[in-house]
Queue: 2 jobs
Job 1
Amino acid sequence: MNATGIPLKEPAISAAAGDTEQFERALIDASTRVPVLIFYTSAVAWLILGTLLAGFVSFKLHTPDLLSDISFLTWGRVRPVHMNVMVYGWASMAGMGTAIWLMARLCRTVLRYPLLLVAGAGFWNLGVFLGVCGILLGDSTGYQWLEFPSYAAIILFVAYTLVASWAVLMFRFRRGEQIYITQWYLLAAFLWFPWLYAAGQLMLFVVPVQGVLQAAVGWWYANNLLFLWFGAIGLGTAYYMIPKVIGRPVYSYHLATIGFWSYALFSSWTGMQRLVDGPFPAWMVTASIAATILTLIPVATVGLNHHMTMQGYFPLMRYSPTLRFTVFGAMSYTVFSLVGVLISLRSVARYVNFTQASIAYSHLGLYAFFTMVIFGSMYYIVPRLIGREWRYGSLIKLHFWASAYGIGLMTLMLLAGGLTQGTGMENPSLAFSESVESVLPYLRGRSLSGILLTVSHFIFAYHFGLMLFGLGRKSTVPTFLNPVETEGAEVAH
Amino acid sequence: MKGLAPLFLGIFGTFAFSWVGLTVIPNWQIGHLNPQSDEEGTDIYPMPQSGMVTRGARVYAANGCNYCHSQQVRAEYSGADIERKWGDRRSAPRDYIFERPALLGKMRMGQDLANIGARAPKEEESPSPAGGPSSAPQAAAASPGTVASAKAASPPPATSPSPATAPATSPGAIASKPSTSPAPAGPPPSKSPAAAAAAAGSPAASPSPSALWPEQTAGLPPMYSAAWHHVHLYSPRSINLDSNMPSYRFLYETRRISDARSSDALQLIGSDAPPEGWEIVPTYDAKCLVAYMMALNQSHPLKDVRSPGASAASSPAASPSPAPGGQPAK
């Protein structure tokens, strides 16, 4: 059924020049300007730092003697710093920036209590900074994505509480009866994260559970962070941006409902498949493998919904940067889930469990899906905050292709390398060191993809910096990737 | 979607379901295990760890060792871990009850370390690597503490590599030349103590361990001893040219020898050796890290797990005998 009651009638109305609504939207955008730009600017700064660290980590993995004599530059410390900078510095801050803007827009009210957000961003930056220093000085806890020592974790949690309480407050001031799909995802993400983070911290560090359960809680946390925090924000953003840019309502509200609830139910049960064949009760792993397979339901419904919405409008990806990045991200969500199902099956996991393939999986989720969607949303939102358009369409194009080829190459290298490494490891007549050596060429290939991604991120940061200093184009027409022929312009606008 | 209540309830409900299902219920099921003991209340396993070991676990985590080394042995039907002799039985939850943090790991860019302490040469053997165990193969079968003896006690692995391929597939070892320093002139002086014992214990059935293990490098301490770990941490490629491990020199200090060479000083060879009059000694953190590794030992039989090595041992009395493999570092 085609939903007619979507509160997002803006494209149609703006075509009809509904002046009051447009004026209202401009007011809302202006009110989000300072907090959202603070989040975005911090995120881009962390992204650059995280990218440099990523290259360093990647090179060190096949050149182990590179700067290894300095304690805070040892591989085992720089790697968690890279991961945490990307997860908490870049992805979380950029995701929150987008989520804040979407919340204000969708609640159709000017942003209230901006100081809550400014303070939240400040504390969040402080928390990430302290955490990074802590890991470098040797205070890492050793649990993936929870490496930040407790003094940093507490500050992060305080910062988060400020942001989340703002989200709930905003929700109370919303206008209109309907709650749009994006708001379900955002509200859920804002409510899931504190529970998840608190549960992880409590069960690991405050009242630690016994033995192997620490590993189980750690992976439960990491996987749910990927799905319930980043995944939910990413999907919510895609549900806003795709219909918005092409000016057409979402294909089916019913499908969206099924997709949302099945996502909440099944993806939250994944996580233990990463511990396959480990010292755990078999039912935990089996339940998670089943849940991973069942995530194909939300993948199918969300994918179908986006596809049917886009039906006939795919050529617009030639012009709109937002659409191109967002659709790439939405498609990557499908790939990410399919790879997740594949590597969780016991017969495959036997070979790839302890290899680079699981790193490919994390990058698919966090980069190919989430980061690309967030890039798309930033290309949409930043001009509306600053009142200028992006300066160079060519730079956006370059950013897109470097990112797309970079992450594609990285995924292929890590998956193929992981499989090679795993088959070698499972063959006991080969020396173990051969399985490690067999993956090194792929790791060098991965370093190459890292160079591509570094180029792409520097281009983006430069472009973002231009916008920030008011050097964007003064224009009423958005920046397109390719010159728009007359007939294209009307639709893409 | 109409109405806020269903949305909020659903959001909380789905997450609560996952939280209870995947953390609370497992905690109720296996979260309060006790060490096992035999009828007399002796032979308790696992034992609480010393302060140095606990601190060593933190050094291990802080330097990210767990990003390349796992600490879990999969069952024989779900992986080649046991065939690779990373353990003689699969790991079980009870093995980890005193581990905090429990660093099971998810990556094997390096070997699995669940039993690295069990691979250490027994203390009395280390002075005379070649002589001790090889002279008494029966004794080796009765004490499954060392790798060599566990190997001898277990049935031949399902896919034992043929002796013909074995030498060709060991590129890791630097030196197969006759050793010079610590090994006395035993019959096969170039072999590691483990290899010698295994060869002596079951010459027909056992594959050449050199296919599976890096070999003893000449001039270095016995493999997997505490002194060996220090050399390996300080300079991994002096032991294995192809090693991918970064060196951890920041855990060691170079100092001038005051009156006599410290007993802790690293036995380095070649270009790693300090200049005359200087010595390289481990910091306290390095000592704790090695103590932690020496304590990683799951060779003790567990009632929870069928242990292929123990069940196939020659006599039932031999299997529950304690395996004192994880002796303290120093």
Note: Chain B has nine helices and two strands.
Job 2
Amino acid sequence: MSHPRKALDALIHSPVRFSLLAALRNLEDVDFRFLADLLEVSDSTLSQNLTVLADAGLVTVRKEPAGRRTRTWIGITAAGSEAFARHLTTLQAIVDSGADRVAAAEPGRRATT
Amino acid sequence: MTGNSIPVVEAAACLAAGDKAAAEARRATRWFPAFVVLQAGLALAFTCAVDVFHVSYWTAFALLVLGSGTAWTTALRHRVSAPRHGLRNAGIAVATWWTLYTLMLDPALQLVGATSPWWWVLAGLIAVSPIGACLFASSRR
């Protein structure tokens, strides 16, 4: 059986992109500004990471005129939601396998805690 | 980064960071459903106060304007975290409620000579339904 780490998606695993998808999975389309504030990242960092995710088809980026300005709306795609769920499952499997190894190495430890 | 190995602690930290981001996102946006429910409640309270409990029209209207004004001022201050088309649709829904009730349902009930206050409660509920629809994400697609 292959190690669960091989199922991790390097595209999603970056801290900013991971948090971005985690937030988007719980929201409807959101404003760029809101997302930058929520994740505490600069506009350029968010923009670069969104471009990577949008190119991979994991998020949608929509620009709409709002008066004299333009508002940018970000949403997660179905493919993005599925890829993120797979990534979470893999991470959980890694955590669980680590916990099992600790329990096997120290059988008395779990019983006492 | 995901090359040869990923320590268990790193995986656990990732999961924790994801949970934190998701929780913060939910917390930052949960005001919108509360705003919609408040606006719908104010609208229904106005129609019931005027046509069921026979409160003075201008007193009820003043309270409606005061309550809605406060709710909208707060909502506009947080508009950056509102869902796409959320406030626009809520505004259209409030205008629809007003038109539907004051220009159509209330005059129609008076025209047919309805006497039971329940007819006005029903009319109020029907008129307020466009505001209630703003609770659903599908109304903004």
Note: Residues 109-113 of chain A have pLDDT under 50 and may be disordered.
